[in-house]
Design goal:
Length: about 800
């Protein structure tokens, strides 16, 4: 059970009476009688979820779309914010709010390295972003966001098992117009956003330029004197789009974008810290870890609050992204169109994680990643208007990745007593087992005693990864009658990948390597400085000062994967009435084989896992009532999940990437939109999940997790959004917006430990805006997480080190913004 700890900073919570009054005002229109016939209907939302412009209500898949107007009222400036309005969508914040890892209908990625591609794909203007480092700052100047649930592949360039999230930016137009928005808020928030478009050549060449900038102080207070608060924001993004109409039938859109994030990094809230006296608490020699969590390094008797750390390791997180994409749309004939999307992406990341949240160097994980991606998507789309229509396409992706990770354990102890922290301290702790003071981690507790980590050491790896993916895909529909339509699609996938130059070293605090962890000693036993160390098959100590050892210390390994798969979908749509659509579909999703990036401790961690597959059966409906003043959509599904890829973080420190043999997920969504009167719109979403492992084990097969719940899959989730044009003054109006989300209890790992689970919680947001000058300008006051609810977005059991690793979600945020349209 999650316990909310109290901060000594004022929270400024709104009173219960005020909250009830706001809810009462917003809910009043819902109780109104059936609206009179002269009131407006729900506006049509056009999406391209199936690579055609279609009304959302006519698309036979489970998809939720957020328009640009909604995104503005919802105050969404981070991809993580999408979870507040998409049923059955969760986010794992293990690498920070700016780089979310999505979980959709319980399908998620459990690795946090660049070598993995998420089963929930992200697209920017139809360009697939292979991993989170390529995503960058993108939540600005958007036309809409579309979230598709279920396996994708017959319509999309990249195959996925969990779904797709499409971010559609505003396309350049020939009219001259623009907008600018500025704002401020708590935690020193400063923001600016704008866009401008115009015709460069009348009716032929148009441009649109958009930008965003946000800076905000950290909301995690660092009580260590002289060190900055954590969890800040400092980012910008710019995008230049050019539209060239070569002819009436051929147009080209070129998009160039760049973004940068340079904030104070996220903080780890060390939960459930051992408080007993050393050495009885925690893992080997980690007793009393919590005693270090004070500003001056002296012993403490209680952990800090959940919005505080005492952290000495505070380098800024840095992420850079550049992207170029060229989209060609060619109407070859009245009934046939050709689309070509050519893209180049580059991203880099430096993530200095202070994993211990403490003022001394107990556990740190800095990692570095760089990636480049080139992709080509080519497809033919028919629009005959008759019984038969189709899409045929081909896709190619080439990806290059460099990844480097270093786990630094207890780089604070001088084992040799010579007053210097260097490689000799690591060697002494790893290869010699003398008596040691009780307050220090005992030396020789590395491989000799069956525990992977050794104090005063650094476990370092690096590798290059190359991946080439080819695929051909197709999707077709055939109208049997005016009521019944058949759909089918097939995809062929071909993936080659190589993990090369893989280096795995044991290093001292001075970065000096002393052992190559990829190659263990062939004979048990050995000696360090003439002192025999325990007889076990472990890494051989190699004196780094001896040039003869250089080649052995730098020896690398390679591994390769090659796999192919045929996937697809089939379904039937029935439209028994004008405003009713019922559909039934089967689809298979596929996620290619993957390498383990966390091979840090033993040769056995240098592995690749098999592809994962997901078979889905889904039935759904979409309906409109009362002259389209109420829309009710729903879907139920059954997933059969095989060989799910999972990073098994073990208490000993090992992190093998494994396949879980079989899991199943059952669930559904129900979404309602109603406009009972012209000035009020209500949206409600419900999601239900029952995800369990049917056959699987972790910890090298020692722990059977069959029957356990899947992580990041709460059994119930709900969303609410209400918009009310409360008052009108000529060409001005006052609008009230309220939205909220709810998620029931969820686990973050396969053991389903209640201690680090997130209990049920709700988030409430609101915005009040005054629109003047005929919608020319606007001033708004907004608040997010109004109740200041404390909740986790990720947690890992590190009790072997004396604490639990926890990421917390955003606290209460509020501010004011103003915009001007011209």
């Amino acid at each position: 059970m999650t316990t909310q700890k109290l901060s000594n900073r004022p929270s400024g919570r709104p009173s219960a009476a005020l909250a009830a009054a706001i809810l009462g005002v917003l809910a009043a229109p819902v109780l109104a009688q059936t609206p009179p016939p002269d009131e407006g209907a729900i506006a049509e939302v056009v999406v391209t979820a199936q690579k055609r412009s279609e009304s959302l209500q006519s698309v036979p898949v489970s998809v939720t779309a957020l328009t640009s107007a909604q995104l503005g009222e919802l105050k969404m400036d981070s991809p993580s914010d999408l979870t507040t309005q998409i049923p059955n969508l969760q986010v794992n914040g293990i690498v920070g709010e700016g780089s979310p890892i999505f979980s959709l209908r319980g399908v998620s990625m459990f690795d946090y390295s660049l070598s993995q591609s998420s089963p929930v794909a992200s697209y920017i203007d139809e360009v697939y972003k292979g991993n989170f480092v390529l995503f960058g700052v993108e939540m600005y100047d958007l036309q809409r966001v579309e979230v598709l649930r279920g396996p994708q592949g017959t319509l999309y360039g990249k195959n996925t098992t969990g779904g797709a999230i499409n971010f559609v930016t505003r396309k350049p137009g020939f009219d001259t117009e623009g907008e600018i928005k500025i704002g401020t808020g708590n935690y020193g928030r400063q923001e600016a956003e704008g866009a401008f478009q115009t015709a460069l050549v009348a009716d032929r060449l148009a441009m649109r330029f958009a930008f965003t900038y946000t800076k905000q102080d950290g909301f995690i207070q660092n009580v260590l004197p002289g060190h900055p608060d954590m969890e800040g924001v400092n980012q910008y993004g710019v995008r230049l789009s050019l539209l060239y109409k070569v002819t009436d039938d051929l147009s080209a859109t070129l998009r160039l974008s760049k973004s940068m994030q340079d904030p104070q990094n996220y903080a780890i809230i060390a939960g459930n810290i051992c408080q007993s006296a050393p050495p009885t608490c925690g893992g080997p020699g980690v007793g009393g870890f919590g005693y270090f969590r004070t500003a001056d390094g002296t012993l403490a008797t209680a952990p800090l609050a959940n919005d505080q750390v005492a952290q000495n390791y505070t380098p800024k997180r840095r992420q850079d992204n550049e992207a170029v994409a060229l989209t060609l749309d060619w109407q070859l004939a009245p009934t046939l169109a050709l689309t070509s999307i050519t893209s180049w992406d580059q991203g880099s990341l430096f993530n200095p994680e202070g994993t211990d949240g403490s003022p001394i160097d107990l556990f740190k994980i800095p990692y570095i990643g760089k990636t480049k991606q080139v992709a080509q998507d080519l497809r033919l789309t028919s629009s005959t208007g008759g019984a038969f229509d189709y899409i045929v396409g081909a896709y190619y992706q080439h990806e290059i990745i460099y990844n480097s990770t270093e786990n630094q354990f207890f780089n604070v102890f001088d084992y040799t007593g010579d007053g210097t922290l260097d490689y000799n301290d690591c060697a002494y702790a790893s290869f010699v087992a003398p008596a040691t003071p009780a307050q220090l981690p005992p030396a020789g507790t590395g491989y000799a005693n069956g525990v992977v980590i050794s104090p005063a050491c650094r476990y370092y790896n690096q590798f290059d990864q190359l991946r080439n993916s080819w695929s051909g895909y197709s999707d077709a529909s055939y109208k049997l009658t005016d009521i019944v339509k058949l759909r089918a699609g097939v995809r062929y996938n071909h993936d080659n990948a190589a993990q090369k130059n893989a280096l795995d070293q044991l290093r001292g605090p001075d970065e000096m390597p002393i052992a190559n962890l990829a190659f263990f000693a062939q004979q048990p036993g050995g000696a360090y400085q003439g002192v025999p160390y325990a007889g076990y098959f472990g890494p051989a100590f190699l004196d780094p000062t001896n040039p003869a050892n250089a080649a052995a210390l730098a020896a690398t390994r390679d591994q390769f994967v090659h796999n192919t798969a045929v996937t697809g979908r089939a379904g039937i749509d029935v439209t028994p009435a004008k405003d009713v659509l019922v559909y039934l579909s089967y689809s298979r999703g596929y996620r290619s084989a993957a390498f383990n990036a966390q091979f840090l401790f033993t040769p056995q961690d240098f592995t690749a896992v098999k592809p994962e597959t997901l078979d889905s059966i889904e039935a759904g409906f979409k309906t409109a009532w009362f002259e389209n003043r109420l829309q009710l959509d729903g879907a139920v599904f059954h997933y059969q999940y095989k060989n799910q890829q999972y990073i098994d973080v073990q208490p000993t420190g090992q992190q093998p990437l494994i396949n879980l043999a079989k899991s199943k997920i059952d669930g559904g969504e129900l979404e309602l939109v109603t406009r009972p009167v012209r000035d009020f719109t209500l949206r409600v979403g419900l999601g239900f999940l029952d995800g369990k492992i049917q056959d699987g084990s972790i910890a090298g097969g020692a722990i059977d997790v069959s029957g356990h719940k899947l992580p990041n899959a709460p059994s119930t989730s709900a969303t609410l959004e209400a918009d009310w044009d409360a008052l009108h003054f000529g060409d001005s109006r006052l609008t009230l917006h309220f939205d909220g989300s709810y998620a029931s209890k969820q686990y973050f790992e396969l053991l389903n430990e209640d201690r680090i689970a997130q209990d049920a919680y709700a988030i409430l947001n609101a915005r009040v805006a005054y629109h003047g000058g005929g919608e020319r300008w606007e001033v708004g006051v907004w608040g997010r997480n109004l109740a200041d609810k404390y909740y986790l977005t990720n947690a890992v059991d590190l009790q072997a080190l004396g604490y639990d690793y926890e990421h917390r979600g955003l606290p209460r945020m509020y501010g004011i913004d103003a915009s001007y349209h011209f």
